[in-house]
Amino acid sequence: MEADALVTYVFDGDNKLDGAAGEIDRAMSGRLGSLVSSGEITAKSLELVLIHFPQGLAAQKLLLVGAGKPGKFATSDLRKIAGAALRHLKSRGVKNFVFLTREGERGPEAAQAVVEGLIVADFESDKYRTDKKKSEIQSVSLAGFDSGLAGNLNAAIEQGRVIADSQNFARDLINEPSNYLTPSMLAAKAEAMAKEVGLGIEILDERRIHELKMGALIGVAQGSVEPPRVIVLRYVPETTAVGAPLLGLVGKAVTFDTGGISIKPANNMEKMKYDMGGGATMLGAMRALAYLKPKVPVIAIVPATENMPGGRAQKPGDVQVAMSGKTIEVINTDAEGRLILADGITYAKSLGCTHLIDAATLTGAIEVALANVNVGAFGTPREFLDQFLASAAAVGEKMWPMPMDDEYEEMIKSTIADIRNTGSGKGGGAITAAWFLKEFAEETPWVHLDIASTCWVDEGRPWLAKGPTGIAIRTIVDFALKL
Asked: What predicted TM-score, i.e. pTM, was given to this entire model?
């Protein structure tokens, strides 16, 4: 097969080069094997070795991607391998290439992972640059798959494309500057997407928000001249079984977060455009579900607002009455995400949602606990959280279960209201924030994802551009499809 480049992967310690790698080695008269035996190719994870004009191959280039130790390899690793290959070749002007899978990784799951990795890797954060690079990948061919699986492979490829495109849709929203993405603008983009994919949509304006007595959301929004919005998306399957669960997805969308009166430091405040990452996550997940059609109904609730200082802004010490009727003492106006999620969760329950997942760039404390490696995952009952984490493991997204001990609940009790919006003790900030949300989820099976440290990367990775990541969409989609 002729192409600008051929891509495959090799394992650390794979000195035999059997199967597909062996065929390439034989075509190259053993030259590939000599590079391995000499130690020039070590196959450490995501090590990239580019060979120009490989003898015996039709391609002008051969790219070998390190897959690490075979014992640690999982099919989900193909996303990073394929993504790293695409970004490496794209930067070198390659227009098309063939990705060759190896033995044991030639089923539908592998095809889906490769497609997701390729499409996500092709996203760039340079939308507003006028001098952006012109290089682009025009086509990628998948090779090595069993032709007898054609129908299943095509379905897997299409599912991978849908999920990756939806992940990039969310990343594009997160990447938008706040002057191009006010709450009203976000609602308009959600409405356009919903019409495109066939989702039901309703936008609650400030009048309706006041009628519903969403006092926690109103408190955050009152400092801004931009009015708040609540985006409500509905997916209804063609047939719904009696007693089927109704999944509610609630996403925090603070389109810019100054911290309010408890204002943030100026350093890095420009990144607070990404504080609507949880809302974008849920919009991306709903876009994918509209195409993939799970058998359960799903409703997404995305409360959207700015958090600004001003003469009308809420102040530390104020008490707000949430939609549920629960009273909240505002200790820190920069703990605003949990306030708007409280009303979002209550509204989801009022619409009949029986199971809840929320996602939010909620706390800096989660970065202290988990760095930028794992999403902090909270939930009750534990069986429901474990079911969700099984989906995370299946799609290769790292999430870590966090504790929800009763002692943390004591830290959010207020002396003048029902609860306070920050913990009274030192430390445990991500956990007390989760407990605040639990006060509104109550006994409904519920998962909370704190994506504050994983929603954005300051430095690009071999398989991912600098900027928004689209984390958690794959897991949410997998969970909904299995629910």
From this structure: 0.96
